[in-house]
Amino acid sequence: MTTLSMTAGPNTVFDRFAKLNWGIITILIALAFVGVLMHFSVSSGAWTDMPLTHGIRFAVLLAMMVLAAIFLDTRVWLAIAYPLYAVALILLVGVEVAGATRMGATRWLDIGPLSLQPSELMKVGIVLALARYYHSLDPRKTGTVLWIVPPFLMIVAPVALVMHQPDLGTSLMILFAGVCIMFLGGLLWRIIAAGAIVAIGGAIFAYFGVLHEYQRQRVDVFLGITQDPLGAGYHVLQSKIAIGSAGLFGRGWMQGTQSQLDFLPEKHTDFIFTMIVEEFGLLGGALVLGLFGALMGLTMQVAYKARSLFGKLAAGGVAATLACYVFINTAMVIGLVPVVGIPLPIISFGGTAMVTLMAGYAIVLSVDLHRDQHGARGWLW
């Protein structure tokens, strides 16, 4: 069964606007406001450039997200799932053939005046494609080996292409989101255990045969194999100093020594959570994590209430993507995982991660707004 049917729902544009999940929207606005505050601090008190750009970018994407949620119901997302995945995969292949190299990585594809990063499109494409696959699959087949092969290949293909760019962080996010949807779709525990064993072996192989030298250096520093405080270990060392000196209430807005004196690298992108903790302390960091936790909780609530399996898995996949962003970023800045270059969504400066998350939440809001569209069901639900 690949179609969705409507049993009830808001009919007018006004009704749909009024019935949007304003809890999710409010939290997204709060996180963006935190981002503007921190970019104002990064800019040493200047509203121009980063804070203004960040705020305008979010406002535009917020309007687009709301419009997409109102006018595109779950059936539309179902219809474009496979085409979107196919386009993203073709663009990833295009990056391999004619990609633009910047800062030592080939991740962009220049099409006329546009510069695209197809791996970001794939973060949304993999969620929708796998959600559609399990939506149309007989629940009795979800645990059989034969029917695991297609989603496995759908995940491995983009992960391999993105790893080759190289972009370890994004490839891990695509892998994590895909595996989460397979689990929610009904993957058996024994298959998950077997996959974990294979993943451990694959990680060892990747370390020796796939990772680039700078990536291996970061892993070595993380594992304590080597000490490189002025090289590969510099970022995390400065981050730990900033967080460790913050205390409960922090040094005050725009008063962080490590960040304001430029000891902390990438403070506006990958290490912005460090800056939040240094200036607002443990309480400030806990508040930000609490906002992300509430956002994940509301997203999973949308997944639980949706009647269609497609809606459930699409919303669950967006929650998994958000969780992966937040976990890797915050764990990275305190040295729990190697540095892989993952921003803190909605807060870090830069458009790619924000576009991906806002597109994901357009899907979530649409699923919530049209939750009574029903279709195939999986055993998990």
From TrEMBL:
GO MF terms held by the record: lipid-linked peptidoglycan transporter activity; peptidoglycan glycosyltransferase activity
Annotated EC: 2.4.99.28
Domain of life (superkingdom): Bacteria
GO cellular component terms, A-Z: cell division site; plasma membrane
GO biological process assignments: cell division; cell wall organization; peptidoglycan biosynthetic process; regulation of cell shape
Recorded topology in the membrane: Multi-pass membrane protein
UniProt subcellular location: Cell inner membrane; Membrane
Pathway: Cell wall biogenesis; peptidoglycan biosynthesis
Catalytic activity: [GlcNAc-(1->4)-Mur2Ac(oyl-L-Ala-gamma-D-Glu-L-Lys-D-Ala-D-Ala)](n)-di-trans,octa-cis-undecaprenyl diphosphate + beta-D-GlcNAc-(1->4)-Mur2Ac(oyl-L-Ala-gamma-D-Glu-L-Lys-D-Ala-D-Ala)-di-trans,octa-cis-undecaprenyl diphosphate = [GlcNAc-(1->4)-Mur2Ac(oyl-L-Ala-gamma-D-Glu-L-Lys-D-Ala-D-Ala)](n+1)-di-trans,octa-cis-undecaprenyl diphosphate + di-trans,octa-cis-undecaprenyl diphosphate + H(+)
Task performed by this protein: Peptidoglycan polymerase that is essential for cell wall elongation.
Designated name of the protein: Peptidoglycan glycosyltransferase MrdB
Taxonomic source organism: Candidatus Viadribacter manganicus
Name of the coding gene: mrdB
